[in-house]
Amino acid sequence: MTKFPPFIINNSHPDQESLLNRIDEACDLMDQIYQDGYYPKMKVTRSWSEHNPVIEGEFAKPRVYRWYLKRELAKLVRAGAEIAISPSREAVSLNDPKLLDAIDEDHWDFTKKKLFLFRAERMDLSLDRLQHYTGTDARDFQRYIMFTNYDMHVEVFKQRYPDCARPTRNVQMPAYHHKVKDNLGLTLINIGVGPSNAKTITDHIAVLRPDAMIMVGHCGGLRNHQEIGDFVLASGYMRADGVLDASMPKNVPIIPNNMLNYHLQSVLEEENMSYRMGTVYTIDNRNWEFMKRRVVQEIHISRSIAIDMESATVATNGFRYRIPNATLLCISDKPLHGKPKLGEAAQSFYQNSKERHLDIVIKAIELSKTNFPGGLPNASIRALDEPLMGGGS
């Protein structure tokens, strides 16, 4: 690529419109650099920072998360930063064995990452895999992402949004997108069952920098006074899923986003729904009843009120990757109280709960969008010295 002076953006622009136009030009340039076979490089100079005045990094496929770049660049420039865009090195082919060295998280110090949470190679690979798993274009993904493991929630979503973007083929984790300008809509992904699937999809979703991830699932109720059909709003997690133990110490507290929970609770109260807040126990064994004594002992110690197979995994990856997240589950069985999940009863429960469950989450997301149009507060999941664009706002 022909060398040229860096494209500069700063707060010298006379008005808001000219600044936003300049940011659009910068995003266009980043797209062009990537299309020409190079990673676009961004250098941010922050005069107010005593210890880290200059931070920089590379991107891949910037068009996919352009909404995020535009929002965060505008925040930085308004705060007085200067942004420089220029070509960097040639993009690494996804077929190049060197790619694995570049994306190895064992060499990733996530506590000290600054402006750029992921290397360009990781962005490239994750966005390719996202399209592979979900059967939809990565550009279709919206800022608010819901996870389910039931087709019935998908059917409700398609009825509510008949024009939603859909998979173009049979895939492992089909995604559906209610597309709105600036990616302000909703995405629903049927991730299937189990913590391995939950980790896989959130690993790749993370490079999109969504504003929120919410698990919309079912669970086993663990308290005597709970009833089938009651809701569980997670306030914490017991991590017995195992899939992220090597990446995140189990003694690190993982909690949902406070404002997301507030909005979910507000809707539950408004709709007069029966619910309880508490710890969700996430396990990697669907047949945990076959080792009841061991599991129940941990349930008692943790004071868990519900058991499932995905919630803690989604929440832990949300914490790792700085994405606000929450969990709203609906009790489908009570295995410790003589009400295991049986075929006929389960199908009746599903039909009666599917629309109400999804509606509650969608209403809570709309509250979040109204109250926090610039993204949910997430200081609690950012590193100690992490500036803007480090993860979500």
Number of strands: 12
- β-strand percent reads 15-25%
What is the number of domains?
2
Listing every helix as H and every strand as E from the N terminus to the C terminus, the arrangement reads EHEEHEHHEHEEHEEHEHEHEH
The dominant shape is globular
User: Which class of secondary structure composition applies to the elements?
Assistant: alpha/beta
What Rg is obtained from the alpha carbons, in whole angstroms? 22 Å
* Tally of contiguous helical segments: 10
User: What is the helix fraction of residues, given as a range?
Assistant: 25-40%
User: What would CATH call the architecture of the largest domain?
Assistant: 3-Layer(aba) Sandwich
Low-pLDDT runs: none
Sheet with the most strands, sense and barrel status = 5 strands, mixed, barrel
Enumerate the strands of the largest sheet in spatial order, edge to edge or round the barrel. 8-11-10-9-12
Intertermini distance: 33 Å
Q: Main traits of this protein?
A:
5-stranded mixed β-barrel, 393 residues, amp nucleosidase, domain 1, 2 domains, single chain, 35% helix, Rossmann fold, globular, 10 helices, alpha/beta, 12 strands
What order do the helices and strands come in, and which of them pair?
Blueprint: E1 7-9, H1 16-35, E2 38-45, E3 54-58, H2 66-78, E4 82-90, H3 98-103, H4 120-134, E5 144-148, H5 151-160, E6 175-178, E7 186-190, H6 195-205, E8 212-221, E9 231-240, H7 258-270, E10 275-283, H8 292-302, E11 304-308, H9 311-320, E12 325-333, H10 343-371
Helix pairs in contact: 1-2, 4-6, 5-10, 6-9, 7-10
Architecture overview:
This protein is an alpha/beta fold. It folds into two domains: 7-120, 2-Layer Sandwich (amp nucleosidase, domain 1); 135-380, Rossmann fold, CATH 3.40.50. It is built from ten helices and twelve strands. The protein has helices at residues 16-35, 66-78, 98-103, 120-134, 151-160, 195-205, 258-270, 292-302, 311-320, 343-371; strands spanning 7-9, 38-45, 54-58, 82-90, 144-148, 175-178, 186-190, 212-221, 231-240, 275-283, 304-308, 325-333. The strands form two sheets. Strands 8-11-10-9-12 form a five-stranded mixed β-barrel, surrounded by four helices. It has a four-stranded antiparallel β-sheet with strand order 1-4-2-3, covered by helices on one side. Strand 2 and strand 3 form a beta hairpin. Helix 1 crosses helix 2 (66-78), helix 4 packs across helix 6 and helix 5 (151-160) packs across helix 10 (343-371). The longest helix is centred in the C-terminal third of the chain and has 29 residues, at 343-371. The chain is globular. The two termini are 33 Å apart.
